[in-house]
Amino acid sequence: MARLKILTAGILFFTSCAATFAADSAVELSRLLPGDANTVSVVRVARILDSERAKTEGWAESANEEFLAGASRIPPWVNTMVIGSLVRPELHEQVWSTGLLDLPPIVTMERIARREESRVEKLSGLRSVRGQRDAFLIEIKPRTLGVRTPAVRQEAARWARSAADGETGDLSEYLQAAIRQQADIIHSVDLTDSSDVRGVQRYLEDHGLVPQDVVTRVNLPRLLSSLRGVSFFATIEESTSAKVVLHFGEDASESAKDVANIFRHIVDDMHMSLEEFESAEVTAQSKTVTLSMDLSDESLRRVLSLISSPHPPHEAHDETISSEPTPQNERVSRVDNELAASKRYFGSVTQIIDDIDRINRSSKSSRSATWLDNFARRIDHLPTAGVERELLGFGRRVSERIRALAASLRGQSVQVNADQQTLVYNVDYKPGWVSGSYWGVVGYGESSYKVSSNLQEVRERQAAAVTKGSQQRIQIWNLVTRDRAEIEDRMRTLHGDEFFNTKR
Known about the structure:
There is one protein chain. The chain is of the alpha+beta class. It has a domain at 325-500. It contains 18 helices and 16 strands. The strands form three sheets. A twelve-stranded antiparallel beta sheet has the order 4-5-6-7-3-2-1-8-9-10-12-11, with helices on both faces. The longest helix is centred in the last third of the chain and has 34 residues, at 327-360. It is globular. 46% of the residues are buried.
């Protein structure tokens, strides 16, 4: 039943060499996270941008093809970003997310406030800015910024003060061990005590995954219910090598193939398939099962889209630096910054469109609704300060249409008026066993043990609805591509070809 999907929520929340530092900044920053976080993400940006591939391809300087653009919203001036979250898989909700990063000298709280169109104020005695995207940006200590979302003032203040005083408590040993791994991108979820044997058995039965072997049929549910956590690691060299590691409380060496097959089934069932999962090398060592693979850039951006990173400040070099500001150079700086913000926003949205186009052409396109939802959410959360109004309208329309594609892939009827460029959803749509969460987790039933007796019938109806909606999805995608062409023409008229120059 839903227990196994709850059990593997962490798999799908992942949510993915520079000079050696005296201390690992990821480890240091993670000590400031709330101790009750059950999910941690690490992106070692400096290491990524110091790779030979990043240098050769100019990732740090490229506006439209910047590797992290539109995926993680992490500026290239960040050395390392650590994100901790508390999620409740059984309730399909994220309670809070907290990000930490080191600030370079050029980025001040005053500058952050100007870019967020806000002001610096005190929060529990600490300098803070209320950001545009439901977040508090707080100077936890000199040169260390904390980003807390949602922007619940009392909760943010209590965490910030405990972090400043070094009293946040310790993360679980499982999460601490994951953070110490020297990968460029890490996402780890502690799933200890999140499931039980009976729930796993029901899920296997409902989905036709019960092993034929009698011994395995008895042992597999017990093994799966002992899952301690799931971690994703990626390292960027000439290619991106990645692995998903499932940690159990019991020996898993004899069940690696079964575990991998169930993993693939769940990601497919949750509309989060990656083609690389099918060909991943499966290995087992004692209490771990590992799927190893090389990821394409598009697949890695999909993985990054699942990391619920809080909204960070903008790039450090966006503003013209002057030791003696004057009204004239401030006006010039503002105009330059607004153009840069518009270019960056346009580049991120079009990168997402390109990635979705690749998804549409892949063999797994029919099982990709959650990727689409996450990309739509990513557009919603892109920085908007200084971005031209026409581009913001373009982004909103693209986000709406991407969500319509996702809804159609889940069997919901979407009516398209191509002339008016509007979409109408079937408001009476009831997906039955399917329900989506903020970060794409899927479950079914009102109880962990409630069996859906018509599960197969519901699945067949849903599959028929997905097939029936193929023409509508083509129409929706045509709206996206037409809108993109029109906004490109508009930006070329206003700013010339320089607007599409990828160099900042």
